[in-house]
Amino acid sequence: MxxxxxxxxxxxxxxxxxxLTGLSACSSSDAADRENGDKLNVVTSFxxxxxxxxxxxxxxxxxxxxxxxxxEPHDLELTPRQxxxxxxxxxxxYLKGIQPAVDDxxxxxxxxxxxxxxxxxxxxxxxxxxxxEEEHPEEEHAxxxxxxxxxxxxxHAxxxxxxxxxxxxxxxxxxxTDPHIWLDPVKYAExxxxxxxxxxxxxxxxxxxYARNTDALVGKLGALDTAFETGLKDTATKTFITTHSAFGYxxxxxxxxxxxxxxxxxxxxxxxxxxxxxxxxxxxxKATTVFFxxxxxxxxxxxxxxxxxxxxxxxxxxEGITERSKGADYIKVMESNLTALQKALxxx
Length: 348
Fold this sequence. Notes:
Oligomer: single chain
Keywords: Signal, Transport
CATH superfamily of the largest domain: Nitrogenase molybdenum iron protein domain
Shape: globular
Signal peptide: 1-31
Structural class: alpha/beta
GO molecular function, one term: metal ion binding
Organism: Streptomyces fulvorobeus
Mean pLDDT: 80
CATH class of the largest domain: Alpha Beta
Radius of gyration: 21 Å
Number of domains: 2
Family: Belongs to the bacterial solute-binding protein 9 family.
C-alpha cells in the first residue's frame, strides 16, 4: 500500500470529533436544512458513485463527490474539512477498497445511511487476463468459441493473484478482489437497484420517485449491456491489451480476454518478463491496440506499442469525468469504450 496517500485513522477520528463543518463544496446543506424539507445531502466517494446518486436521486438530492474531476481517485487525500463534514451528510455512497482514506473517514463518520456499493453485488478476483463467460471455465470457453486464441496470461494468473492478495494497494478490493464493478453494466445495474432501495429507506417521502428513477437507469444499463453484447459478438480477435487491468468484469461479461500490462495496480511498473509476454500475446492473438486511460500517463502504453508495432487508444475506466473524457457521463463514455473495442478487436 502506498501509505503516503492515506490519512491516519487517528487523524480521521480527531477531525470527526472536532466536528469540522462542511465538505469543501457542500456547505449549503446541513441537518437544519433537512428538517425544513431541503434536499437530501448526499456525499459520494468518486464518479461512478456520484453518477448513481444523481441519476437515482434526481431533484430530491444534493450530491457532492469527495474526488474532484481530474483527480486520480486512488491519489485522493482528504482535507480535515472534508473528513469532519462527512458526519453532516444525510447519506453516504462509496465503494470500499478503492480509496482507503475514504474508507477510514466513512467508518469514523458513523452516518446511519451509509452504503458500500461493494455489498450490493458480488466481487470477483481478476488478474491480467479474463476471458470466460459466467459459470464457464476460462479454458473451455476459449477452446469452444475461439480455438485460435492464446492465453499466455494464464500461466501467470496464480502468481499475479498471490501478489495482489499480499499487496495492500489502495486500488485493490477486500481479499484481493477486483473493485471495478461499474465497468460491467449488469453488475452496475445490480448496484443501482440497491442504491435505489437505500435511498427509498433514507427518504421515504420520495420513495416512489427513487423507484421510478432506478427503473429508468436500470433500463439504460440494460440497453448498454445489449449494445456491448451485440457489438462484440463477432470480432477478429477477443484479446485486448491495456495498461491497467480495470476491465476484468467487462471482459468476462462479453467473452473477451483482457491482457493487462501491469495488473490491477494502475501505477505498477511491468516486469521485463511481463513485457516480453505481452509481445508474444499481441503476435499470437493478432492484437492491434494498447489501451491507456485518461487520468494516468500514457508512457507505458506508447512504449509497448512502439516495441510491438501496435496502435494506442483510450479505454476509459470511468473513474472521473474531465474535458478529456470521450463523453459527458457514464453512458456516453461507455459507448465510446464500446466503439474503441470494436475498432481494436475488428468487429464485423
